[in-house]
């Protein structure tokens, strides 16, 4: 039976979504094309009718995964995003959690198109959070962007560190709590009196 164009698009989207979760769980190099296709319910041979290479699938799955993280932003400000991002629920949901936290280390060793997908995704998140802060002047916008980029980097690092600990480790929860409090403090308007693009070395949890 011939597959319609609409069904082919749906099949491709299903493979991308499935790969996005599996990559987050096992890493880009931790799973092969055959296993990815099997998990999506297709044969290995069908892969090359849909994608030029595994790197193409990695790039598309990155876009898919970061779009899911972007859903955390909808209708919320940067502070609420940090609260959701640095939660135990998000930390434990590796396969459905942040693609950046799960795969940034892997991405650094991948082809440029994969790294470009990360760059575009990070830029999109920062822009959206900055716009939702409601700043007006160019100076305020630049300061807000620096603050949000700093907060995102700290939150991502905290999530990676927490996941590196055993699931029942008190330290895993402590890392989330300390970073969440400090990052929320850094996002307060009156905490921005430090040079743009730098963080306060003396800040402490609220």
TrEMBL record:
The keyword Transcription regulation applies. Residues 184-206 are annotated as: Disordered. Residues 194-206 have a biased composition (Polar residues). InterPro entries: Homeodomain-like_sf, HTH_TetR, Tet_transcr_reg_TetR-rel_C_sf. The keyword Nucleotidyltransferase does not apply. Keywords: DNA-binding, Transcription, Transcription regulation. One of its GO terms (molecular function) is DNA binding. Residues 32-51 bind DNA. Residues 9-69 form the HTH tetR-type domain. This is TetR/AcrR family transcriptional repressor of nem operon. It comes from Quisquiliibacterium transsilvanicum. The lineage of its organism: Bacteria, Pseudomonadati, Pseudomonadota, Betaproteobacteria, Burkholderiales.
């Amino acid at each position: 039976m011939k597959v319609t164009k609409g069904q082919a698009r749906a099949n491709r989207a299903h493979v991308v979504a499935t790969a996005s979760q599996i990559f987050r769980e096992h890493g880009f190099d931790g799973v092969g094309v055959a296993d990815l296709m099997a998990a999506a319910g297709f044969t290995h041979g069908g892969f090359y009718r849909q994608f030029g290479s595994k790197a193409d699938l990695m790039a598309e799955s990155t876009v898919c995964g970061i779009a899911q993280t972007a859903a955390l932003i909808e209708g919320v400000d940067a502070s609420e995003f940090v609260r959701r991002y640095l939660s135990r629920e998000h930390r434990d949901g590796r396969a459905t959690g942040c693609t950046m936290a799960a795969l940034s280390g892997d991405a650094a060793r991948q082809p440029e198109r994969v790294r470009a997908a990360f760059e575009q995704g990070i830029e999109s998140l920062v822009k959206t959070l900055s716009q939702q802060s409601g700043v007006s002047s160019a100076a305020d916008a630049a300061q807000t962007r620096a603050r949000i980029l700093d907060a995102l980097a700290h939150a991502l690092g905290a999530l990676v560190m927490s996941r590196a600990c055993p699931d029942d480790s008190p330290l895993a929860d402590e890392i989330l709590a300390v970073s969440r409090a400090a990052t929320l403090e850094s996002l307060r308007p009156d905490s921005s009196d430090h040079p743009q693009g730098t963080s306060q070395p003396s800040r402490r949890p609220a």
